Amino acid sequence: MTLSEELAWRGFVNQTTYKNITVLDGEPISFYLGVDPSADSMQVGNLAIVMMVKHFIKAGHKAMLLVGGATGLIGDPDGKSEERQLKSLEEIAHNKAGIAAQYNTILEGDNFELVDNYDWFKDMGFLEFLRDVGKHVPLRQMIARDFVQARLGEGGAGISYAEFSYSLIQGYDFVHLHRKHGVSLQVCGADQWGNSIAGVDLIRRMTGDEAHIWSAPLVINKTTGKKFGKSEDGAVWLDPSKTSPTDFYQFWVNVDDLGVEDYLKIYTMLSRDEVEKVIAEFNQNKAGRAAQKALAFEVTKLVHGAAAADDAKSYAENLKSVAVETETFKVKRGASIIDVLCDSGLTSSKSEARQLLADNGVYINDVQVSKETLEESDFQNGKLGLRKGKKLQNTKIIELER
Hints:
The protein is built from 18 helices and 12 strands. The chain folds into 3 domains: 3-216, 3-Layer(aba) Sandwich (Rossmann fold); 221-316, Tyrosyl-Transfer RNA Synthetase (Orthogonal Bundle); 326-402, Structural Genomics Hypothetical 15.5 Kd Protein In mrcA-pckA Intergenic Region, Chain A. By secondary structure, the protein is α/β, with parallel strands linked by helices. The model has no long low-confidence stretch (mean pLDDT 89). The longest helix is centred in the last third of the chain and has 20 residues, at 306-325. 46% of the residues lie in helices and 13% in strands. Strands 3-2-1-4-5 form a 5-stranded parallel sheet, with helices on both faces. It has a 5-stranded mixed sheet with strand order 8-12-11-9-10, with helices on one face.
């Protein structure tokens, strides 16, 4: 398939300024994707756009990945009803390092360049920015943005000059990359269309050149109609310290039947033939969840590596066997781990449970823990595996009472 055909088949086509998308099948294009370091990890929603970038690179286009050290100091106001809390330079630096590491993992073997807009903004003076950039931006255009109207309208929380100027700062990123690196295309999610168009307009006004946007639709859970990428416990992170590889794998195993084919196309590099083969098997026996299992393994391997994917797969399969053979033990919210260890029969006394916990011998969903209380985030669809030591047979399935 050509790139335009691949993007269409995988569901990566939304709004674009290109009149004919087959332009992507021609000469190499320098493009960029920007992300602000508002956290030290990306989420599943961010991963979809990075997967799209992989296809652009595979087709021979030149990728620049921007981690917004400068824009991160302000925070994107689009979609926010109130002002963001400002982050320190140290916090931004920490977050940038985390996101850069994830790019390097997911795009391992792919050709891309990592850039940071703080590098070109840190020495730019205020007057220089107003004269060279601000002079080219009509105020009417900035005020017309939906998020500005919402914040300034009746009942709105108002907006600071800093957040009001965010799209102007982001727009200049495109100008800088266009001038210095020949970047002529920005790729983004559908929710970044407005900010991205500001850059296209600024390039036209400041250089007279033409630039373009390619946006991908937001991934929607077809069963709920809501934005995809949330578990019962909130965001699904790519950082293993925030969402363990086991929980990450289980999230994908639990995705809805209606959307699983879409997720295979978006979140894996499986070919069309491979996806169709998986879906054919799935349609013959949906209860077997062959599509979800293939999806879970492929995405976990991409984000956490083959060894972690193998471990998560084995744990999920073994835990299922334990669940069939073991009676479920029910607990209330905020239950003491020491009490549960003792009451479920994993230990013979509370003192043994305390010693086990002190000796780092307690595991929740295959992750070693030292805390003393079960939290809702520990449960997957209302259940968790509580284990004593490293032997799987010393596992109890704990269910949260509703």
